[in-house]
Amino acid sequence: MKPPCFSIVSTIAFLFLLTNITTLAQGLQKSTPEAVGLSSPRLERLDKVIQEHVDKEQIPGAVALIARGGKVAHVKAYGMKDMENKAPMAEDAIFRIASMTKPVTTVAAMILLEEGKFLLDDPVAKYIPAFASSKVLVVDETAKNGYRLEDARRPITVRHLLTQTSGITYGFLGLPFLEKMYKDAGISDGLTNTDDNLAAWAQKLAGMPLANHPGEKFQYGLNTDLLGRLVEIWSGMPLDAFFRTRIFEPLQMKDTHFFLPEDKIGRFVSLYEPKPDGGLLKTPLTQQVKGAAVYSPTYHYQGPRTFFSGGAGLASTVSDYLRFAQMLLNGGELDGARLLSPKTLELMTSNQLGEVAYPWAKGTGFGFGLFVEEGPQATGNLGSAGNFGWSGFFSTYFWVDSKEKLIGILMTQMQPNPTNIAAKFKVMVYQAIVE
Fold first, then answer.
1. What SS3 class is residue 185?
2. What is the pairing mode between strands 315-316 and 406-411?
3. pLDDT per position as a tens digit, 401-424
């Protein structure tokens, strides 16, 4: 018979191992800031800046996370998840990540590229024939309706969708004539409830004129939603099922969903908007987004649950999204689960636009579903050449710095975000690096 002390020690060791396995399943291992070259006193500056935004009611609350060298060096929740109910923010809070869905859909497509399901320069019409006769809307004051339509100079390709250069737009961007056309056609922008599935939605989108000729201009829009439909066609699976089985389960992203299970709704963060005279207002249950699309804050847990928006439809946590970002930083692999080849990640995170204008940020280009920074000499800001990442409509943000082996994630819930908190967060992260 083994001595009782052996059983006790074994039990303690087993529980310790189980605890660490659980920690790894929920995120990455934690570290002290100093162990990964960050300064704890300098990180207090970050806490102070975010807390000031909360105290001034510029944001309701937030969760910030910094990882370096594959370990979490700083994670903290600030403020409230729901101000009216005085529910404090928590590190495991679930946020609407909106366009931070785009990198996930891009990874899904690149997985299928590596399996030989398509080529980047394949026409979209090869898989969805309705896109074979795309037209471009040209504003023309001499025309009866104020515009004319002309044949697209080239077909829309998968590459155009990945680089947001297809000419497909968002209705809520307010482009002349197109805003009304999208609204009249009932085309969901990924922020709105709809009875459509991706197949029916794509057929509607194919009937819309383009904002510009494919390949000639960066035009932010529903490109990645259409890419999500192609993922369904190439894989033979609904997009949510592909995400779950090919990305979320391998990466142990347990809290990322298009539509939340009942037992997770209580962790969902309320959405706020600024009052004209200062302070915050909880977004009404039905909300107009720039006068075009109707958005409901309950979208992720009420409604038909049939439309899987690859451009804006996911809800997630900082812990889950960290695992996704760490996979990108690692060149396509995390904890033994390899989703992509390092060469594929190299392509995704290289500036693909060339001379096609990217209008949003100085010294910043665009890869596949991600911004790509040229470096501090070009951006005029702290960072490294090759930084990549993206943000979401409801004020979520992440970036990856491969040189520093660094990931920063900040999530709050505002529409639109009236502050510069994401830019300040980035500065606060870099100023905390001391070695």
1. helix
2. unpaired
3. 999 999 999 999 998 887 899 999
